[in-house]
Write a sequence for this structure.
């Protein structure tokens, strides 16, 4: 896996966000360094999802900064955040159920050959990332046939197929079993070893 060891101290600084005049985030800060695993704790409605959506620019902040490697960034959309190595996996997932695992993984960054999708290469590459996290399925499997835990693993395989710096998982254990949770934590430990910063 290609993971750049990027030295950044702060990811968000003084983030403020209100919805309809109600302040949800007040000067929110999160800081992650490569190889660190953090847990963002707070009761329901505390603003955890809002903060990570601001990080990926799915939501616009009212004020504050998102900083990576000491530089303020201004992502226009979540795709730009992903391109800069910030991957957020939401509870509701972002997969197309009607296509295969590999098609989901390379959506928007397809391997091409003579202007056509290079299926062989796509499947090989998908398998490579899936093997890294022990996702033992055919890359051709239709996503709609997968369990919640398997869909989550596909999201992680997709995230590590980018030059990943920070992986954010929103309530990753909410809908999976204890055994699946253990496996997820093993993957998190493995990514940590490889220098990815992780927020859950
Ligand atoms: N898109 C939205 N529009 C209006 N209010 C929202 C929106 N998203 C979140 N909120 C509100 O912001 C607060 C924080 O929500 P959220 O970030 O989802 O909390 P958490 O993830 O910590 O449970 C809640 O009161 C929620 O109702
Ligand atoms: Mg939430």
């Amino acid at each position: 896996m290609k993971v750049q060891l990027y030295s950044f101290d702060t990811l968000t600084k003084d983030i403020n966000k209100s919805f309809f005049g109600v302040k949800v985030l007040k000067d929110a800060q999160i800081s992650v360094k490569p190889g660190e695993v953090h847990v963002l704790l707070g009761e329901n409605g505390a603003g955890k999802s809002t903060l990570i959506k601001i990080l990926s620019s799915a939501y616009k902040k009212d004020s504050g900064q998102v900083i990576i490697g000491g530089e303020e960034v201004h992502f226009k959309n979540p795709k730009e955040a992903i391109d800069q190595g910030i991957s957020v996996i939401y509870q509701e997932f972002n997969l197309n159920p009607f296509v295969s695992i590999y098609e989901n993984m390379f959506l928007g960054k397809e391997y091409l050959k003579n202007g056509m999708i290079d299926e062989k290469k796509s499947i090989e590459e998908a398998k490579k990332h899936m093997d890294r996290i022990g996702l033992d399925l055919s890359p051709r499997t239709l996503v709609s046939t997968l369990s919640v835990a398997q869909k989550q693993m596909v999201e992680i395989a997709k995230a590590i197929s980018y030059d990943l710096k920070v992986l954010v998982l929103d309530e990753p254990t909410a809908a999976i079993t204890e055994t699946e949770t253990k496996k997820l934590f093993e993957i998190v430990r493995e990514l940590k070893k490889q220098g990815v910063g992780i927020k859950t």
User: Anything to note?
Assistant: The pocket of adenosine-5'-diphosphate (ligand 1) is lined by residues 19, 24, 42, 44-50 (CB under 6 Å). The helical segments are 48-55, 78-83, 101-105, 119-132, 148-160, 178-193. The CA atoms of residues 17 and 23 lie 6 Å apart. The domain at 12-199 is CATH 3.40.50.300 (Rossmann fold).
